[in-house]
Amino acid sequence: MAEPLILTFDIGTQSARALLVSPQGRILFKAQRAYETPYYSIQPGWAEQRAEFYWEKLCETSRNLKEQAGALWHDIIAVTCTTIRDTCLCVDKNCKPLRNVIVWIDDRRVENLSPLPAVTAMLFKAARLREMIELQRRVCHSNWIKVNERDIWDRTDKFVLISTWLNYKLCGNLLDSSAGIIGHIPFDTKLRKWMKPTDIRRCIFGVEDDKLFDFVEPGKTLGTIATTAARETGIPAGLPLIATGSDKGCETLGLSCISSEKAALSFGTTATIQFSTQTYLEPQPHMPAYPAIVPGYYNPEIEIYRGYWLLSWFKKEFASKEVAEAQKLGIDAEWLLDKRLQEINPGCDGLILQPYFTPGVSMPHAKGAAIGMTDVHTRIHFYRAIIEGINFALLDGLRLMEKRGKLRISSLFVAGGGSQSNEICRITASQFGLPVYRVQTHEATGLGSSIVAFIAKGIFSSYEEAIREMVHIQDEFEPDKQIHGIYKEIYTRIFEKIFDKLLPLYQEINMILASSTEKR
Predict the structure, then answer these.
(1) What is the DSSP secondary-structure string of 108-140?
(2) Higher pLDDT, 306 or 487
(3) What is the topology classification, in CATH, of domain 5-243?
(4) Which pLDDT score is estimated for 129?
(5) What's the angle, vertex CA 113, arms to CA 110 and CA 119, rounded to 5?
(6) Residues 6 or more apart from 325 whose CB is under 8 A from it?
(7) pLDDT tens by residue, 32-85
(8) CATH topology of domain 249-520
(9) Which runs of consecutive H residues, i.e. helices, occur in 173-226?
(10) Residue ranges of the domains in the chain?
(11) What is the model's pLDDT at position 56?
């Protein structure tokens, strides 16, 4: 064995990756499969996928990686698997899926829920939480299945996450990592335990105790690669499968953000800002901080749903010219669009976009909005306004978390598809007024997952040592002070006020749409 290697799977919303990672943090080989159809929309707003689909993609990437690696395949000492969050599945007693996976991006709402117990409802109302709690109940996919597919729920032995089921497929044990249990399920993220039946929050989630699954802490062994899995994936049977965490948690670790001075920005399908703290800190009132991979830490996070998905949407709807030109040149359309970003002044000549295209629990009535449009604006102005709008929303989240935690973030580390753009990184640095760092690989999620396994196998003695050896800053983007001044004015004088000003109109729109639907 020349050097020990970790085989890491990163199962995302749009694609699956298999990586072979060295102790120096190098991605020696990579196999990726983009999903032609990431999910099915049986009804508007729904998002489902076959559970076997994710397993098939994992197997494909694994076999492809084995072919690339050649003799180095025998140097693998452990396997890890990190996946998208809040993507759930009903399985029977034989761990066979009973229905499609409901993907995190699904926006269905359950109707005709049983009312909360009178005392519980009164307590939530007194705490001014009634609307938020009712929305939480309506977006829980477990509740939707119980109401609309009762036969399936009655036959469900365990209600699991896609990560749990993939672990089962790999090693035969229906187990997960405590740092990966993130979703609309009754998990107490502060205590890293399932909520007790007496917990007042338990009424939100319609999952009975006997349908919950077991879990271990990050770094523990979930099992060993089963013979059947070895045949389908090409992974040597008997290799340990190490528990790590969710994709975002692994990404934060892979960016070296294990202290409250650094924040991880993820420019992916969902844009997020996340950091690590030893103090349990709710990023927003009554919204949980997630359990971090590093023992004793939490990951407060603010999400912008449909974050950098908006750039894909823009490319599809408005950038046919760049798409056609890129195809002729054999390059990505994003590269051409990024070059054009430099044509537009910071602040987009007054065009400001609020990127809340998908409402969340903390913003149930939110919608996207663009203000300040004039006849000087072009579609490239709009492209840059999307980027600036996402950053303003993330900056809003950062300021909120800093205030709640009485702390100060001094540097930003970026990952995700959008982070591959130098221009986006420069814009981000100037908007936040902070240095932005990019590490040696944009595969930060797989890197973070591998770090856990190297520590578990004794290659490194601590997370600090592993990060020193495996995470290396490759690019630094310093903020332009003059441009930051412009962005600061726009943020404090305009962006911060948009949502509150438009909220009454959003509420009216939703009421009109609801009334129109009922009449039809």
Answers:
(1) ----SPPPPPHHHHHHHHHTT-HHHHHHHHHH-
(2) 487
(3) Nucleotidyltransferase; domain 5 (3.30.420)
(4) 86
(5) 135
(6) 333, 336
(7) 999 999 999 999 889 999 999 999 999 999 999 999 999 999 999 999 999 999
(8) Nucleotidyltransferase; domain 5 (3.30.420)
(9) none
(10) 5-243, 249-520
(11) 98
